[in-house]
Structures are given as C-alpha cells and as structure tokens.
Known about the structure:
14-stranded parallel beta barrel; Jelly Rolls
Amino acid sequence: MPYDEYEAEAAVYNGVLLGPSTTLGQIASEASGREAVDLTGTGNYVTFTTLHPCNSIVVRYSIPDAPGGGGINATLSVFVNGAFNQELPLTSRYSWDYKNWSYPYDKNPADGSPFHFFDEAHALLGMEVPAGSTVTLQKQASDTASWYVVDLIDLEEVAAPAAMPSGYTPITNYGAVGDGSTDNSAAIQACVNANSQVWIPQGNFACLSAAINVPAGVTVQGAGMWHSVLSGYYATLNLGGGNDRFLNFALSGDTVNRVDSNPDNGFNNLAGTGSLLQNIWIEHEKCGYWVGNSSNPVTNGLLITGCRIRDTYADGVNFCNGTSDSTVTQSQFRNTGDDSLASWSPSGGPVNSGNLFSFNTVQNTWRADCFALYGGSSNAIEDNLCSDTLDQSGILVEQGFTSNPFSGTSSILRNTLTRAGGLFNGAEYGALQFWGNQAALAGAFTIDSLLIVNPTYQGVVFNGSYASGGETFTNTQINGAGTWAMMVASTTRGTATFSSTVVTAPGTGGMDNLSSNFTVVKGSGDSGW
C-alpha cells in the first residue's frame, strides 16, 4: 500500500502505554501489536518521525462512548514539526458494542462487557511534510473527550485530484452537489441510468434516500479515493449485470449496527463476468462487498485490487453464491466485524471455484477470521499477511455454514499469521484451523511456506466431529505459540502429513494429538515437536 504505518507504542509519547493484552474487553486486545498509547491528561502526546514525504494522515483511535450509548464527537489536535496543523474530528458513533456477540449488537453501555473499541479518521494535512519531520497527536484543552487511545497512524503522499477523462459524464450534470449534506441519490441514479461512463468529481456526495443501482457495462470513476466520496447510509452500489468497473473513489457509509437483513454493504449482488474494483476505499458499511445473489448467482472473473476496506460491521469481501475465478489482491483490510476475506459456497447452489486471495494485508479483525474458506473447489489463499485477530483464526478452513463440500485442491501458500487466534464462545481458535463442523473436509489441502508467529493459543488446530484430515504441510514455521504449536481435538479423525515443519518456543509443547483416529505423518526436516 502507498503509505507508511507507524505504531504509537514505538513512537515518542508521554501518555500511558496500554498492553500488551489478549483479554477480551481490554482496549489493548484490539490494538495492532496488542499495545496502544492512552492520552488522558491535557498535554499528553504521541510524536511520530516521518520516514518519507507525506501530506495526509490516518489515525486509528478509540474514544469513550456516550453514557447512554450512541457515541460522542470530539477532536484531537495535530501538529507538524511543532506547529499546530488542525483539529482532527473523531467519533465513537461507529464503535462500542456490549454484552454479547449476537447481532444486532447490544449498544447499551449499562449491559457491560464492552468490545469493538476502535475506529479511524483521516485528513489531508494541507502541506507537504518532508521525510524526517515530526507529526504529533496531542490532547489540548479544546479536545474534550476524557481520553484518547492512539493505536497507529498511516502517513501517505496523496496525489492531486485526477482530471476527468474524455468521454465521461460528471454526476454534477444531473444536479449532484458535493457538499456532504445534499441528498444526491436521485441525481447519481439518473446519471448512471443514462451513461456508460460516469465521473465522480472531487467532493463529498451524500446518498441519503436510496442506494445506487448500476446496470451492466457501466464504468464509475472518481478523482481519487481521497478526493471523490459517496457518503451516507445509502452509499451503496448494487450491481446488476457484468463488465462493471469502479475506480478511484471512496464509499463512506453510516452503518452503526449489524442487521443482516439490511442491504447496507458498500457493494452488493453479483458482478457478472469481468467486473473490476480498483483503488476503492470502503468504510463504515456492513460489508465491503457481498458478492453474489441467491436468485441469479453468477460472478466470474471479478478482480478487486488496490482497495482499502476498514471499520465494517461484517465481512470485508465475501465471495458467495457460486463466485468463481475471482481475485482479491494487493488490498488492505482493517477492523472488519466478520471474516475480512471469505469464500462461502452455500449448498444447493453453484460451487465457488478457482478463487484467489493474494498479496493482501489484513489487520485487527474484531470478529471472526482474516481469511476463511467454507466449502468449494480449488480456492487459494496465497502470499498474505494477517495480524492481531481478536477472537478467531488467521485462516479458517471449515465445512460449515451449510456449504457445498470441498473438492479439488485448496492451496494455502506463503502466508504469515502474526498474533492470530483467540477465544470465542469459550473455545480456543488456532492461528490456522481446519474444522470438520457439519461434514468431513473432503478434497486435498496444500499448505506450504507458512509462518505463524506468536499465536494467542495454538498455531495449527484440527477440530470438529467429522474428519479434518487431508492436509499436507511443507516448510512451516510455528514460533512462540501461546499453548501448543499444533493440536488435534479428540473428536476429529483423518491424516495430516508434515515435512520441514519447525516449531520453536511453544508455550506448552509441540503437538497435542487427543484423537486416536487422527494420524500425524512426520517427514524429513521436522523439528521441535
């Protein structure tokens, strides 16, 4: 991604260090690296030194909820090289849930057991900041929240707004106004209905009354994800055919709870054949893109690349309903409220096949997994980074959610899982988990060049009341497991084969095979277990 990420705990600060913690309900457990810095007193600050030139900032933060729920608004002061730059607007409207993990979530602070603490804010700095400069976040007297927890910042050199290409029609020709408050739903819909090449100029275009339905063969392009924004609860694009293309703009939703019957996703429905999402920023939606439609489940060759999907109440991207030969690559996901990337092949419909998640960075999934495969044929998870899941796995392979059986060979290649795994409904989830939940895991699973670092509990888990075997591991490293490097539940059965699998410094031990019906085949190069 085209920015540098800076951790608050590695910066210069006079606030209070929180963490490290993996205990649900503690703010540090949801922070990147399980640590963050608390700015409580006036004058508390955290100062970062820039590695490269930049002109923008993203802050991942937590501030208190309102006493009765619903969030508060506050500011946090930004300084560049010691000089005041701006008051960055923050809100807790899109965070803070309570009591349990059932949705719609409990939003009442009186019910206790809080979770989902963090959100993000971003702004252009209005100046060029050279490498070696300082960027400071400081609580001033005018910054009225009782405390501010800073997790990290992103600093980026943002290009100027792009000019409209030839042949495009701007939505302003149909009356759209980019002031952030005018309702533009009808104007944008009229432009999309009448034109195959639609331009979103620089501005914040609110969609307040209806989502936008995009027919087949339409390209929607903006001046850049920092410059062209569709905002509001109906900042949603419903696809209806194929060969749709979306480039260089942002969707900033207004979803404050998860209601699965509501269609408040950044993108909805099938993508047909050959559709593209490129350089799209999606936040504060239920899902980034729920791909598929049970009444017409056809998506093939969808490419999602260069995107940022953050601060959602459910999945980042879910390939569903027969989505096949589709790819999510070179994208970044942070703070999603369900699987950041999932391929789910519901039974009774066409089989998901040939999908690929590659070269993605996933951080701080606050519910569920970084990556998940639920049935399907020959899907792949390759060359990704995953870190700091709150309660479930870095990668989950599950015959569950009433999915089609696995078939062919599913590939998990060259991935790194850091501080993954967690505790959900009283069960420990490993960094990588194979789960024969509703039926046996059929097909074959190839795992190569997997690096697991400091998993909360186990590194690799085989679980379920059905067979969870059929896996072949090569060149695997499991370092610093919280408990066992690998574990087999007593209820499962099958065979897993290992070679060049190296375990170092497990908290409890190398392999805990509790099943008399599961065979572990060790090969050359295995050590530490």
